[in-house]
Amino acid sequence: MVMGFVTLIDDFSNFTGRRTVVSISIFAAVLCLCILVGHLLEEHRWFNESITAILIGFIVGTIILFASKGKNSHILRFDEELFFIYLLPPIIFNAGFQVKKKQFFHNFLTIMSFGVLGVFISFTIISVGCGWLFPKVGFEGLNLQDYLALGTIFSATDTVCTLQVLCQEETPRLYSLVFGEGVVNDATSVVLFNAIKQIDFSSLESRTALKVFGDFLYLFATSTILGVGTGLLTAYALKTLYFGRHSTDREIALMSLMAYLSYMLAELLQLSGILTVFFCGIVMSHYAWHNVSENSRITTRHIFAALSFMAETFIFLYVGMDALDIDKWKTSETRVSTVFGIYGVMIFLILIGRAAFVFPLSVMSNCFSSPSERQLITFKHQVVIWWAGLMRGAVSIALAYNQFTLSGVTEDPDHATVITSTIVVVLFSTLVFGFLTRPLVVMLLPHRHQPDTSDPHGRDNGSPSKDDILFPFLSMGDPSSSGLLQAKQSLSMLFERPVHTIHVHWRKFDDTYMRPIFGGPRLCEEN
Fold first, then answer.
1. Same domain, yes or no, for 168 and 290?
2. Which is the most buried residue in 171, 201, 449, 509, by most CB within 10 A?
3. Where are its TM segments located (predicted)?
4. CA gap 195, 218 in Å, rounded
5. Average pLDDT in the 200-224 region?
6. CA 522 from centroid of its chain's CA atoms
7. Measured between alpha carbons, how far apart are the two ends of the chain, in Å?
């Protein structure tokens, strides 16, 4: 029956000349199957959407492989441009749009240290480790650029899978740290990967590393500014023109198109589209979302989440199918013992590379936290952060395809071995590490129910705490206080409670200058 179905599909495709349409139709049907199975397994503690999609993709790929007599295992051929241009933007934008900003910015320095400095540490360990250990297991043929590329490929954690494993309501700080690190990590890895591809290895200079780091700082700053600027422009347009009185459809369309435009502009200017669309999502949720009608608020929340969910499922479904790509396995001529040695080396270096920065940087974060604001990253928290970030996903596969294939095809046996090894490592890390992450979180951090103080949009309600009300800065307008005394109080509180101090100053600036121009509830309306 299966054989007849596949033959019918081939005949129909050849007859009509619309093979792509047939392939997309089948893929859409399999996506629907993933959603149904995922719904049935929603309450299962060992499964999540990514694992379900990978397993279904693997099963479908196996069926296609046997039905086509070993000629093919997937419906569509992987294209890194498809991933970066169409699938990744809605995932990252929705992450920024739904993020609880107070938690994210409260842990901003720790997130940046994990996402930037951590990538460079992991990149160094993996690159050096691959160059040293691969020849020892009998795998040679890669050059310096390939080894450096491998360092960036396997330093990119899987933001998508991590977000599905951890629950934002149950472990808000852990979610914020792992999620924030994942976004910055992906952006750093992609920027570093592109910088490595532009290096002329025939004439290396002593200042090459410094130039790469300078380029990264420039890309990070300009990408962030572009994302914030696009978000503010959208908010101003919605507030000034008030689209809602004519059509809520226009409000939703404007927000969606401006978000996508920010990503494409970043790619056009050779910036980091990931960072741009992420900060665009944060700014839109903070300002633009309050300028649209109530219907548009509800609709945008669900539309962005649905697009992100479909893109995530699509990615993992394809990863499962691509594991059985017979062409790459045939091209690879590496011995079985060497292949398993490569798998072991890669997984070992991922474990060591992540541990090398998670635990030391967590200790540093604890040491530099002020006593009055100290919210320590305990050892149990560190173990969960280390474990949750061990998963690798579509970003790693896309970068590997970009480095070692041409339009998804390679004739080089060594490059084919790297591609198949990358797919195996992604499958292993997602299935094994992802499979065990939720039970590990439950074991180390038993759930304690806390009342939800966020609004339906998934953000903090912004209600001031007692410390905000009694905060000395709010009484700085007292005419009896001298300017010198006010300055001393400001400096004292800045050193004693830096995060809280910056937050209060930002709230005052935001309420006084930003929200009257770009929209959003005033502070008095939030209380």
1. yes
2. 171
3. 20-41, 53-70, 82-99, 111-135, 216-238, 272-290, 302-320, 340-363, 384-404, 416-436
4. 12
5. 77
6. 31
7. 65
Beta carbons within 8 Å of 316's beta carbon, 6+ residues apart? 49, 50, 53, 54, 57, 160, 161, 393, 394, 430
Residue range 456-480, pLDDT digits in tens: 344 444 444 444 434 443 444 444 4
Tokens read off for 119:
């990538």
Residue tagged 């009998």 (tokens): 138
pTM of the model: 0.78
Is 353 domain-assigned? yes
Phi first, then psi, for residue 460 (nearest 5°) are: -70, 145
CA–CA separation, 381 vs 166, rounded Å?
A: 12
Res. 230: pLDDT tops 90: yes
pLDDT band at 513 (very low <50, low <70, confident <90, very high): confident
Domain hosting 516: range is 466-526
DSSP state of 245: G
How is residue 16 written in tokens? 């009509």
Is pLDDT of 359 > 50?
A: yes
- The residue ranking higher by pLDDT, 496 or 163, is 163
SS (H, E, C) 429-486: HHHHHHHHHHHHHHHHCCCCCCCCCECCCCCECCCCCHHHHHCHHHHCCCCCCCHHHH
Flag whether 460 is in a domain.
no
Q: How far apart are CA 165 and CA 278, in angstroms?
A: 20
Question: Are 413 and 513 in the same domain?
Answer: no
CA distance 388 to 438: 9
Q: What is the CATH number of the domain that holds 74?
A: 1.20.1530.20
**Whole-angstrom distance, CA of residue 122 vs CA of residue 78:** 27
Determine, yes or no, domain membership for 375: yes
